[in-house]
User: Fold these one by one.
Assistant:
Number 1:
Amino acid sequence: MIKKQLIMEKALELFAKQGFATTTVQQITDYCGISKGAFYLSFKSKDELILALIDHFMIQITSNIDYIVNNIDDDAELLYTFYYAMFESFHKHSDFAKLFIKEQSHTFNEEFIVKMQYYDKLSERMFLSLIERLYGETVNRIKYDLIYCIKGFMNTYSSLFLFYNVPLDLKVLAQSLVEKTNLLARQMTVPFISPELWQLMEQPLLGEVTKEQLRNFIDQKVDELEESVEKESLLLLKEQLIASTYPQAVVRGLLENVRNHPECKWISYLLRRYYQF
Amino acid sequence: MIKKQLIMEKALELFAKQGFATTTVQQITDYCGISKGAFYLSFKSKDELILALIDHFMIQITSNIDYIVNNIDDDAELLYTFYYAMFESFHKHSDFAKLFIKEQSHTFNEEFIVKMQYYDKLSERMFLSLIERLYGETVNRIKYDLIYCIKGFMNTYSSLFLFYNVPLDLKVLAQSLVEKTNLLARQMTVPFISPELWQLMEQPLLGEVTKEQLRNFIDQKVDELEESVEKESLLLLKEQLIASTYPQAVVRGLLENVRNHPECKWISYLLRRYYQF
DNA sequence: TTGACAAATGACTCGTTGGTCATTATTATA
DNA sequence: TATAATAATGACCAACGAGTCATTTGTCAA
């Protein structure tokens, strides 16, 4: 388990620097100070490694942002905090962000493409719910364009500080993007992306998670965990899924217990969405 | 010469579909109906091929846009026409656009990176001169942010129609982006990219072409060309570089002769910049 | 100390692919 | 037609790198 983490860390460094295809398994294992065979004890293949990396960090980032956004009551702060948290994440995990941007369009591995599309749609959804909450009905006609503008901002501004070594003033960046977004949201009148166009692009729909899937996820995680508050909380949350016995406050508390454990972020995110907290 | 073109066309198709790394030389030659050896009569390596493709199309697109923008007098139309021409180019050369987006970050080949940075800076320059012409002094503090917004728009909106098979209404798209750009240009007050930050990122400066370089370019092109008006015009333009004997009108005329020949677009673009037409 | 089990090693296999070159086909010239 | 020059071919080579597996090393309970 520790070995796996070591490989992921070291590999990420190399991938960010050289790209996935040009980094050999040998390089990774040399850099880790382990043998090539040891690599294949932790990962079935080189592809599985990058898939694991993507999941690991996207889960971390997505669920973190989602939590932050859902715990801000004041709409005036919302957008600012969102941008701030987003770029803070990219900055903190800059190696991952580089990898993610560089490898955005690996055409070969089917599973990889599906995964990327999944997270792309996921973030679009996040943007959309943010927009709807902030501007409500008034932006109905232009909301899909807003999503794309936000995506554009994220893209260009993040590659700016990722690939040039420039100092990064997160506060100004967030402020600046808040202003841009507000200007567009409040005054744009000519949308390009109509609801129909949007639907055309929604083809590979983002499925909802079922109760059974959630239970499986929890079972899996529980096996990997040591005895701890997190593990106990997860087990209780599983009980709750089967037969809801606890009041909402308890469920929220249990989720809070679990939220900060890096291994549980994804599950806690899914559960929060499931319970619509 | 014809063979080279055939290879470029067919290879572009395959690259757009499968990516550069996963397309083998064998696949390319099979698709062209020629032998593997024949490939290496036209290109020294597989890398040289992609470099040639990038140059070929970027020159085409860049010089075309530049020409259009420089031949519009009415500022009211300018931005619209710019966006329209830009996306029309991407649409027309969609295979190239796909390749370009997909391979934006090949870390391995040094020459490739330099080339991409060069064209990136080139387009930034184009955006900047457009912005300065349209909005003048008033946008001085926010002009670099405007560049990045435009880059962001180009990026997200083009991948939208490149990778999803959706119908494309160029007019609405251009209109929509014009509105967005105008809104931002006229009301943005919080820039993120300060002049100093901009300078930090300008490190690999875009060199000016010298008279000698231009003469070399022309000599090279002249050798490749059949007897034609274009060839004669180029020779005269070379004379003019050495000892300027003709009035401006003549030079302009000569450039006009050369402009539409696909092989001469780049030179005509460089000359126009040199003479500041 | 021993022996059973698990973890780790790295030499090796094997498929792939960019690039070469001796040979053959084609065209131009005398 | 003969000869030279040029174009084209595809079998072959060498390098590389993902993944395997027989063997060694380490661990721990009896």
Note: Chain A has a mean pLDDT of 88.
Number 2:
Amino acid sequence: MAAMRLSRLLFVTLREDPADAEVRSHALMARAGFLQKLAAGIYVYGPMMWRVLRRIEHIVRDEHDKAGCLEMLMPALQPRELWDTSGRWDRYVNDGILFHFKDRRGSEVCLGPTHEEVMTTYVQRQVQSYKQLPVILYQIQTKFRDEIRPRFGLMRGREFIMKDAYSFDTSAEAMVESYQRMREVYRSIFSRCGLRFTPVQADSGAIGGSGSEEFMVDADTGEDAIAVCRATSYAANLEKAVSRIPAPAQPAEELPMHKEPTPHARSCEDLLALFPELPITRMLKTVLYAVVYADGSEGVVAVMCRGDREINEVKLSNHLQALQLELASEEQVKAATGAEVGFAGPIGLASHVRLLADQSVEGVKGFLCGGNETGTHYLDVYFGRDLEQPETVDFGTVQAGDQVMDGEGEIEITRGIEVGHIFQLGTKYSEAMDATFSDENQKTKPIWMGCYGIGVSRVAASAIEQNHDEHGMIWPLPIAPFAVHLVQMKAGNAEQDALSLEIHDKLEAAGVDVLWDDRKKVSPGAKFKDADLVGIPLRIVVGRDAASRGVEWSLRAQAGEKEAISADEAMQRAIQMAQEAGR
RNA sequence: CGGGGAGUAGCGCAGUCUGGCAGCGCAUCUGCUUUGGGAGCAGAGGGUCGCAGGUUCGAAUCCUGUCUCCCCGACCA
């Protein structure tokens, strides 16, 4: 094998962050030449980056294969008809997320953002009998999503590498078994990658289905907020999380409802200033949404919510089975309430408005709400006495300090990067695409499905987001581009040349990959800075003690802790650590 | 989609207001010295100033159009 000499690796580092890098992982990978941006959300993976991605892929493959999953490869190009069959074409085009175009004959095609349709079709033609099930198929492939706003380097790209797997079972119970098996596969994968992560309950979103969990890499810079409880180990995506919220304040005496002038008071903050003795838990805001329903019809929905709480649009959208949900426009608010924005309330809404309430209104008495007239609010309003309580559902967002639903424990809000997501799909796709099997009694039944995704390129970015310092990246050993960074101080010095070559060859022979900095005319300082930047976990420095077979040993993660040891001892340590890390 | 900002050497930027030789730092190349935390000196190469059109004796600079990139908002009444 040819030695991995840095001087031959097209190795270029930048001293400054690129101007467009917003997060550390992106800036560091760009500075180290791992990544090069080609267009918004589209990146070239350089040779070092590709080694990392292959490491991750190797772990992903290994764990899937061990669990009996079958690897295959599906096309990236997909015909529209397939997506019309599942009914997702319009939704994805509406969301603007689908790359689609016409081929030379005028047929519409898209670049696959995911592969449920293709996979279900494949299985529909391939599977006839219960004897062929269960089966779990997977692929590692480039996915395409025209993100509304690509950002954060590899975190949210428009083209990215994803592992997607699909399970096929004969019953709901068997589907849950496959799902549980994949949960374990996912835990093993992220553990083996050397990442600290939290599995959380999740909303199933556009893909549809019932049970769903996300795997979040713990990182303060993560895009997603998650609700976790140390005491009960409850963990859920904020879109899904539920909690017991603090009880509202109660009025001292029951007063009749009355309307008060509240000029310019459009927010709870304004109203708190106006009525200083009224607690915010006795203010109910009414938020208006414009909704497009799944059948294409449109409407306006008003949702009541306690002043100190916030509405969770994902929960609301799911309950309404909405295709689109956004805050109502100024005009829509005026048409619904007859008032300027800021004075909406449940009493006297236009008849076309559907009124709902978040469960945070439960038990609130003598409350304030908008007057549906510019510059007025009602006070001392009671459900049951002054108006009927509208349909009340959990549309709330949990907040830090809430109590968990079952058991004793306080919820904390932390952040994470979603690197994996698993779903129980049920029969949604199999029914739409007629993927059925014959059971023991020759009865035709739809196949029960699950689907399971891992953002491979995102795993790499999140590893850096989680592990870096001011000098550069710190790769976990299992997924590092190389296990050992062999830093030769003075290339051309006979003793150093000989010892470096020996260390390189012996480690490679033992299956440990080595990046050998053999560059001439590069100062020691520059070599150390570059080594810090690329973050290879194990470091062996060949320098002044080369003649006596002495080297310096250090770990990138423990900068500053350097040991002078023999070359043989260093090799032994490197081999052992690489093996322990499963390389 | 809306709002803001930016496109000048591989990277980071100045120059644009007030039109007149296209600059600086890093990187690259050559030579000499240097070699355990981004070395020094001397020299060199590298640019259709995003693109198209216009104004002008003359445009990186002014005008029009266009493309691309980045940030903020997608928000609680």
Note: Chain A has 14 helices and 31 strands.
